[in-house]
């Protein structure tokens, strides 16, 4: 996926994040789907009801996401570096390394050419913690509390994993696509649906028979009790 992270990050929400390896969707294919989405987006101005407009907007977002996801699941284009168990392990360990420090880790799956991740950015309630600005690791809300920003979290994960993966692959150069797709998880029901989707993605992609067989699936059961 190649969509920019939002400039506005609501506090106290979980986030569903998808990112992919570089070169896994051809530019011409990406632009075609993007243009279709932008054309359909213009039609939303015709809806006067804000609730209906929001619903239609979410439908368009979902359709766009599914089109890109379908391409990634086929692994038709680009590299499949994450299919190397040594590389997948690097990403797996990186996700857990920041768990409890920058975010609470809810779920993830690592596929051959992309990953899905659900996290809950940690809010620090100490006023002395809220001194750094958005160019560092956290931002300050109106109450004086701070929480780690999504873009910084993903930047740290991708920078480290790219460096270590390239060592394993004996290569140099770009590893991840620059941008990420992210989605604010609105409620517990949506969280359950997203986690179920993530864990079943390897099955849908034809990589295993059942979700439990996929070595690179993870979820924190305390969020799904």
Taken together, the total number of domains comes to 2
Gap between N and C termini:
30 Å
Low-confidence parts lasting 5 or more residues at pLDDT below 50? 1-9, 125-147
**Main sheet: strands, sense, barrel:** 5 strands, antiparallel
Shape, please?
globular
Helices, by number, come to 5
Residues in helices, as a percent range: 40-55%
Quickly give the CATH architecture of the largest domain: 2-Layer Sandwich
Mean pLDDT: 85
- Helix/strand order: EHHHEEEEEHEHE
Q: Structural class, from secondary structure content?
A: alpha+beta
Strand runs, count: 8
What's the CATH C level of the largest domain? Alpha Beta
**How much of the residues is beta strand, in percent?**
15-25%
> What is the CATH H-level superfamily of the largest domain?
Transposase IS200-like
Work out the radius of gyration: 18 Å
CATH fold naming of the largest domain = Alpha-Beta Plaits
Please give a handful of descriptors for the protein shown.
8 strands; 40% helix; single chain; disordered N terminus; 225 residues; 2 domains; Alpha-Beta Plaits; 5 helices; 17% strand; alpha+beta; five-stranded antiparallel β-sheet
Per-chain topology:
Blueprint: E1 14-20, H1 27-42, H2 50-74, H3 85-97, E2 103-110, E3 114-121, E4 123-124, E5 138-140, E6 146-148, H4 150-169, E7 181-185, H5 188-204, E8 217-219
Antiparallel strand pairs: 1-3, 1-7, 2-3, 2-8, 4-6, 5-6
Helix pairs in contact: 1-2, 3-4
């Amino acid at each position: 996926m190649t969509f920019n992270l939002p400039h506005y990050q609501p506090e106290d929400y979980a986030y569903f994040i998808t990112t992919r390896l570089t070169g896994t969707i051809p530019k011409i294919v990406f632009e075609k789907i993007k243009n279709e989405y932008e054309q359909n987006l213009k039609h939303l101005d015709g809806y006067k009801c804000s609730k209906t407009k929001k619903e239609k907007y979410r439908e368009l977002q979902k359709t766009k996401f599914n089109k890109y996801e379908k391409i990634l699941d086929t692994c038709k284009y680009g590299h499949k570096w994450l299919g190397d168990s040594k590389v997948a392990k690097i990403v797996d360990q990186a996700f857990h390394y920041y768990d409890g420090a920058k975010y609470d880790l809810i779920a993830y799956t690592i596929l051959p050419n992309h990953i899905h991740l659900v996290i809950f950015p940690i809010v620090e309630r100490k006023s002395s913690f809220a001194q750094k600005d958005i160019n560092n690791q956290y931002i300050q809300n109106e109450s004086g509390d701070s929480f780690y920003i999504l873009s910084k979290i993903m930047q740290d994960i991708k920078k480290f994993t790219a460096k270590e993966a390239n060592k394993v692959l004996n290569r140099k150069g770009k590893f991840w696509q620059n941008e990420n797709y992210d989605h604010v998880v609105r409620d517990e029901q949506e969280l359950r649906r997203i986690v179920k989707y993530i864990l079943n993605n390897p099955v849908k992609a034809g990589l295993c028979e059942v979700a439990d067989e996929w070595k690179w699936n993870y979820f924190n059961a305390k969020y799904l009790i």
